[in-house]
Amino acid sequence: MKLSGLRALMVVTCVVALFSMMAVADLEHIAANELIPEISAAAGLALASSWAEITTEAQLEDLAVTGRTIGLRTAASEALSILYFAKTGEELIAILISDLDPMIRAAAIAPAKMYLSAMTREDVEDFVLADYLKELATTGETHEMRLAAARAHYFVIRRTLPFALDELKAAADGGTELAIAAGEVLGGFYLFHPVLGKTQAELVDLAIGAGSAGLRTAAATALAVLLIQSDETAVSLQTTMLEIFGTGSVEHRNAYKFALAHRFGL
Amino acid sequence: MKKIALIAASLLLVFASVAVLAQDYKVVPLGVPGTLWEDFEVGVHGGTIRSSMISNPRTFNPIMVRDTASGWLDDRMQEALILRNPHTGVHEPYLAKAFEIAEDGLSITVHLRRGLKWSDGEPFTAADVMFTWVDLWLNEDVEARRELWTLPDGMLPTFEQIDDYTVVVHFTTIFRPAVGFVTGAQILPRHRLWEYVAKLNPALEGVCQFNTAWGIDVDPAAMAGMGAFILEHFITDMEIRLVRNPHFWQFDAAGNRLPYLDAAVVHIVESIDVSLLRFLNGEIDTYGARPEDLAILKAEGPLRGFETVISDVTGWGTAFFAFNQDVPEDENLRGLFRDLRFRQAVAHSIDLDTIIEGIYMGFARPQWSHVAIPSPFFMGDEHAIWFEYDLDKAASLLDEIGLFDTDGDGVREFPDGSPVTFVLITNAGHTIREQKCLILADDLARIGVDVVTSFIPFGALVGQLLGAEYQAVMIGLTGGMDAHGGRTVYHSTGSLHFWRFSAGGPDGRLPERFPVADPAEWNARVDELYDLGVGSFDEAEIMHYYHEMQIIIRENLPLMFTVSPLQMASAYDRIGNGLWETFEGIHTGTGLTAVTFAFRRDL
């Protein structure tokens, strides 16, 4: 596509996004009262940046656990994640491997991935970061620790992936944290790769029916992007979410959750 | 009809703005339909843009710049008289208001914009231009790279000041690239730098201090520039902060003085990985995307609010395999690397399709010419000489040379029984180059050539290259618009003629170690074409020379080119004109955003 076309698309997208943004109070109302969990969580995702500015870490840690709905707990956990970027790597790892509530541990995943992706170990001879992360993604004490390490692993080895796509597809075909992280990257390739690229219909089929969580994650990752870039409105997305409530797969419903969060002003 | 009316109205607005300004300011018609700038937006003042680079600048002295980081900063803070528009290839006046080339081609008269001021408020005049040209560039005490200013007859240009706003460059022979290289040099403030020049400052007692002036420890208050930004501070390994030049001489069509941004901060990060992580985390606003980043960027961009665009234009660089035809202490290899049939065999062994599809996922173009694909001097793929991927043909050429696998171990031998093996180096961590090496080594192994790949630190690689100690290398060079810039590489006396320094004759790089050899006949013709290419302003005539040169160089394969990747860039939606500016940064070879027109949408 020509640059001018892309520019026009971007401007339109921004304008649509601006007019779709909802007030914090409206989002809080949805997060607190919506019965469809993915819609509630989408509002929570969109609330996070506002909450991160006005709420303390202690309050968020409390809300992430005691929030009455998934939307409120998501908002708190995601806001906490923003605040956790100020923590040291050691502090983040301590949270990830703690016995704190999973919603609190989840808040440490994104900042820990950043820390792990660039870490060095001068105390270990012949330290190879990618290998260390792969090991940690398998042996880490908690799901959140393993997921952070797995995501960091695929970030670190991303340079090798374009010439190892068959291996990536194979790695995504599973349910482990490494498979989920591989699936997230594979989903990126679905969006532009001349051979791997998929249509929206193919992505929907895969997000619902692929045989493993990793492959469903791959399809859902790409589907979320296509939904965001589509002309679907917040209303039409919610209508679909109502229709697919409790059906298909978690990953498929999550794609709509992220797209709706974007429409809500994520 | 409606469109014409719109364009007319827009141009009227531009001219009205110029009239209102009543100065020789440059008006950039951002967002004006029918102009090159129609895809840009008129912005708003304020805010900061953040980007990153992976090395510290080494100097803020434009004439001493030898590295990318310093060059990028320098381009933000200083300006030239005339520059080639990267989008059109046409030379345009910048600090100059206009210029004329004399009918005999032996002089260029440059008229300066009037009423401009340096960032510190001092007037910009011809005295600054003469200082830059005569007291700095022509001053033998100053370590300026005069190689590209040297005329075919060995002379340098001379300069004349007519009045406060008119200067003339004189040549003893026609020197076409003067418009790019001489009038394209950044102009420096006399009032800030004269005291470092021995011939102007008796207090220095003959010791020139200019070469160390404006080093990284410079007090920013001691500097001045004509660029969009000025230095506020530099903290080693941390950040560089540039702030708006309050006297910048460019305006948008609505009459707003550029740049829009209050500041541009460049974080110094330890690696490209950290740069990408910071971008993904929203800590920096723009990122020079690469093919291996696309999966992550495409998947995360829409959610996080950034866009990644892949241009249909390639970059300015070249990437190639090269053999050291002066390779020391191995007569077999030296003879082999000098044998055109061997280089042809290697060229037939480079699997460009696998490189493009496998490494670049289709986002690259095969490259055959030494001239950058976007350059107006590039003669186009319709004239290309391709060495198609054909291992049978490559094997036949090796047979023809007399290399056979006499002991049946799968590796061919030289007539003296020693195996045909060499070390192919590239810089460690550059995964794309490493992969190219592995792909070539695999293919050459299939035709009985043993390649040992070795990935070494970049500094060590450059040392081996310039010391002519390597055997084979995979590396790249940045390029520019004017094909004359390749003279340093392809002219037999060029300082980067690293594939055969010994061809440089008495002025070559390694006469003490190798017998001085006249350049090969074809290289002598290339030398001649470089001289002819600067000897005329007739575009059709000079294109003829550079086209012949491209064919000759391709036929003789001193370097075996691979592919040129398409340009990619990512920028957050909160930055207006961000993607275009990022592309502009890539145009200039930095991958960093140029920031003159960028603005923040989220103020």
Task: Describe the protein in words.
The complex is a heterodimer of chains A (266) and B (603). Chain A has 266 residues and is mostly helical. Chain A folds into 3 domains: 23-84, no CATH class; 88-156, no CATH class; 163-244 and 254-259, no CATH class. Chain A contains 16 helices and no strands. Chain A has helices at residues 3-20, 24-33, 37-54, 57-66, 70-84, 89-96, 102-107, 109-117, 129-139, 143-156, 165-172, 177-190, 200-209, 213-229, 234-244, 250-263. In chain A, helix 3 (37-54) packs parallel to helix 5 (70-84), helix 6 (89-96) packs across helix 8 (109-117) and helix 11 (165-172) crosses helix 12 (177-190). Chain A starts with a helix and ends with a helix. The model of chain A is unreliable at 1-20 (pLDDT under 50). By secondary structure, chain B is α+β, with helices and mostly antiparallel strands. Chain B has 3 domains: 8-57 and 227-313 and 574-603, Periplasmic binding protein-like II (D-Maltodextrin-Binding Protein, domain 2, 3-Layer(aba) Sandwich), CATH 3.40.190.10; 79-212, Dipeptide-binding Protein, domain 1, CATH 3.90.76; 318-564, Dipeptide-binding Protein, Domain 3 (Dipeptide-binding Protein, domain 3, Roll), CATH 3.10.105. In chain B, 29% of the residues lie in helices and 19% in strands. Chain B has 17 helices and 23 strands. Chain B has helices spanning 2-21, 68-77, 126-137, 178-181, 190-193, 272-280, 294-304, 331-338, 340-347, 352-359, 391-401, 431-446, 458-466, 487-490, 521-533, 539-556, 578-587; strands spanning 26-28, 48-53, 82-84, 91-93, 96-101, 107-112, 158-163, 166-170, 229-235, 239-244, 250-252, 263-268, 286-287, 306-314, 318-323, 364-366, 421-427, 450-456, 472-477, 559-561, 563-572, 575-576, 599-600. In chain B, helix 9 packs antiparallel against helix 11. Chain B is globular and about 80 Å long.
